[in-house]
Amino acid sequence: MQQLSVSNLVRYLKYKIDNDRNLQNLNVIGEISNLSLSVSGHLYFCLKDEQSSIDCVMFHGNASKLTFRPKNGDKVILKASASIYEAQGRLQLYVSSIRLDGIGDLYQKYEELRIKLEAEGKFAPEHKISLPKYYPDRIAVLTGDDSAAMSDIKRAFFRRWPLCIVDYYPVLVQGEKAAQDIIVRLKEVDPLDYDAIILARGGGSFEDLFCFNDEQLINAIYDLKTFIVTGIGHEQDVSLADLAADLRAATPTAAVELITPDITDVSDALNDSLYELRKYMTGRMDREYLRYDFLLERFIGYRHHYEQLALKIDHHIDTIKTHLLHQITHHADNMQSLGDRMRFKVNFALNNEQLHLKRLNTLLEAYSSQNVLKRGYTLVIQNDHPVKRKIDLKPQAFTLRFSDGEIVAQERGTDA
Predict the structure, then answer these.
(1) Cα 334 to Cα 274: distance, rounded to the nearest angstrom
(2) CATH homologous superfamily of 6-102
(3) Is-contact 170 143, C-beta < 8 A?
(4) In 262-334, alpha helices (H)
(5) Residue 139: its pLDDT value, please?
(6) Are strands 53-58 and 90-100 parallel, antiparallel or unpaired?
């Protein structure tokens, strides 16, 4: 009997399989398992059924042409050829194409419509609307009536943001009439001035969710003036409605979480702000009390003169304290109390300026020429100018000004 090396045997088997027409251009049905993607872009996986499995490889050139991302558990139809991998003597299928078993036609329609709508700009980021409010007041929810998705959304709103008004609009979310039913509801809700619209549905098969790939529905979503977030199916389910929406969430619950704050976080933030406000106002009040005490001690010598003013200060201080404590308790601002203190400071400064003005006015009156004349002095005026020295007096008429009038005089020489 002829002896063969392992490599010769494997090479012979490869030759036989490669030249067997029945083992080329195969259409093989099975389920994907052990899927992995190499750094070079090749796909490696097993194709199995209830009884057997076979290794498969799809090289990067063919893998890059796939219109969907295969995953473990997918039931698929492979177009492939059988051959032997010589290095390990392993039989495997060399795959040229993959399509999902049973819904391949739907995926084809999905992909063709996706490419068409993308070319028309229906998924363009620049067209999408930003969420108008971080604390929404009114939200419309379009989902199946009494569905699990509706229950999940209600629980999410109650847990996260119960302050929001949520209106529920039941719609069909499966079947031939679902897309048109959703379109009618969207057009009804859009003009009602909601902060946001949630379009949601629970999980399901690709066929169950296919109504969300309707071209007219995509156009209706594109034309909305209201912000819309979708939460359709599970995280791996991405419909064309998700691509057209302003924001896409993985699930209905996630849709609520993306557009609402958590009331617990808001409460914590308010408590932190209240603490900081109390801390600031307490410090401000302490500083103002110290300032008040300093001013009171500085002007203790003028107690009698400022007695009424001190009473007013005490009254204003008590008023400010009561008002500030009331505002802190009710999360209000402190502007009124600051205004009161500013008015006090301005009035105090104004009173000081008025006293200073009175003193200046008293000095001015004391040194006025009229008061000097009243004390018995006489003012000599010649040529409209006062004469300060005798030598400056010219031998001509001059005026003597007294406190009660004037006389005109003429200087006489010493020989007169």
Answers:
(1) 12
(2) Nucleic acid-binding proteins (2.40.50.140)
(3) yes
(4) 263-298, 307-329
(5) 97
(6) parallel
Token pair in block for residue 308 = 């009424």
Backbone angles phi, psi at 5, to 5 degrees: -75, 160
- Contact in structure between 307 and 283 (CB atoms under 8 Å): no
Mean pLDDT across 199-205: 90
pLDDT tens digit sequence for 365-404: 776 777 777 777 788 888 888 888 888 888 888 888 887 8
Model confidence band, residue 86 (pLDDT cutoffs 50, 70, 90): very high
Q: Which two tokens stand for residue 245?
A: 């929406």
Distances (CA, A) of 278 to 84, 267, 313, 324, 336: 79, 16, 23, 9, 16
pLDDT exceeding 70 applies to what percent of the chain? 91
Nearest to 224 by CA among 140, 157, 118, 163: 140
String of DSSP letters for 167-195: EEEE---SSTTHHHHHHHHHHHHGGG--S
Cα–Cα distances in Å, from 300 out to 3, 294, 318?
124, 10, 20
Specify the length of the chain in residues: 416
What tokens does 400 get?
């003597």
The topology under which CATH files domain 123-261 is: Rossmann fold (3.40.50)
Question: Exposed/middle/buried for 74, CB within 10 Å: 0-12, 13-18, 19+?
Answer: middle
pTM exceeds 0.90: no
Question: Average pLDDT of 130-146?
Answer: 93
Domain boundaries, the chain: 6-102, 123-261, 264-362, 370-410
pLDDT above 60 for 105: yes
- Residue in 159, 275, 264, 259 with CA at minimum distance from that of residue 199: 259
| C-alpha span between 123 and 222 (Å, rounded) | 8
What would the pLDDT profile of 226-276 be if each residue is shown by its tens digit? 999 999 988 878 999 999 999 999 999 999 999 999 999 988 988 999 999
